[in-house]
Amino acid sequence: MHGHTFWVLGMGNTDEGPYQGQALETITPIERDTASVNPNSWLYIRVRMTNPGAWAFHSHIEWHLSNGLYIIFVSAPEMVRARLGTLPTLPSCPL
């Protein structure tokens, strides 16, 4: 995740499938700025969004990006909007 660090609370094993309520490490989780996700698995993270802006959360596998497998998180949208305004030709985000 660009612009922030996060804590890894848990991760699944290869071919485990989606998160199904497995126990999470909430007392002493590892703080990271990158993480790998096992194939057909899951990664459970906690992020404190303290850096205003639009930040990418994505894989570095090219076909993932070209197929839309990425997310943009907007941290502190009010601060971003106050500083940069909105583009008059685009609809504003309802956040």
TrEMBL record:
<keyword id="KW-0560">Oxidoreductase</keyword>
<keyword id="KW-0479">Metal-binding</keyword>
<dbReference type="InterPro" id="IPR033138">
    <property type="entry name" value="Cu_oxidase_CS"/>
</dbReference>
<dbReference type="InterPro" id="IPR045087">
    <property type="entry name" value="Cu-oxidase_fam"/>
</dbReference>
<dbReference type="InterPro" id="IPR008972">
    <property type="entry name" value="Cupredoxin"/>
</dbReference>
<dbReference type="GO" id="GO:0016491">
    <property type="term" value="F:oxidoreductase activity"/>
</dbReference>
<dbReference type="Pfam" id="PF07731">
    <property type="entry name" value="Cu-oxidase_2"/>
</dbReference>
<feature type="domain" description="Plastocyanin-like">
    <location>
        <begin position="1"/>
        <end position="77"/>
    </location>
</feature>
<protein>
    <recommendedName>
        <fullName>Plastocyanin-like domain-containing protein</fullName>
    </recommendedName>
</protein>
<dbReference type="InterPro" id="IPR011706">
    <property type="entry name" value="Cu-oxidase_C"/>
</dbReference>
<dbReference type="GO" id="GO:0005507">
    <property type="term" value="F:copper ion binding"/>
</dbReference>
